[in-house]
Amino acid sequence: QLQLVESGGGLVQPGGSLRLSCAASGFTLDSYAIVWFRQGPGKEREGVSCIRGNDGTAYVENSVKDRFTTSRDNAKNMVYLHLKSLKLEDTAVYYCAAGSIFSGRPFCEGEYGLGPAREYNIWGQGTQVTVSS
């Protein structure tokens, strides 16, 4: 069974940091791009970051690239989203998702970035990040 499980969310004060984890099972990262999306209360889902498991090519949306980074550990089959200098507006459920790099889509590259959410067919259940004083 192909599965993603997020963890690491929680309550944090403005200016704080968190590391979100995305654990993959049933498949190996080197054939997939792993992305992070988030959805805040009353907001549309938005893309955050992307990383390719085969070569580590990474992309972070401009809106958060000065504060968020993504990394992977293929040996552990894990992808991480590192959040720092958190703001109230970062409050959201954060989801990781996977799409096959053999789909032909230029995941995590330049203009393409994350691409649309429909390109990803494996989704986790999400982890809540709440930024509050």
Textual characterization of the structure:
The chain is mainly β. Helices cover 0% and strands 47% of the residues. It contains no helices and 11 strands. It has strands spanning 3-7, 10-12, 18-25, 32-39, 46-52, 58-60, 68-73, 78-83, 92-100, 122-123, 127-131. The strands form 2 sheets. Strands 2, 4, 5, 6, 9, 10 and 11 form a 7-stranded mixed β-sheet that branches. A 4-stranded antiparallel β-sheet has the order 1-3-8-7, with no helix packed on it. Strand 5 (46-52) and strand 6 (58-60) form a beta hairpin. The radius of gyration is 14 Å and the shape is globular. The N and C termini lie far apart (40 Å).
List the helices and strands and how they pair.
Layout: E1 3-7, E2 10-12, E3 18-25, E4 32-39, E5 46-52, E6 58-60, E7 68-73, E8 78-83, E9 92-100, E10 122-123, E11 127-131
Parallel strand pairs: 2-11
Antiparallel strand pairs: 1-3, 3-8, 4-5, 4-9, 5-6, 7-8, 9-10, 9-11
Notable traits:
globular; 133 residues; mainly beta; 7-stranded mixed sheet; 47% strand; 11 strands
Give a quick rundown of the structure.
The chain is 0% helix and 47% strand.
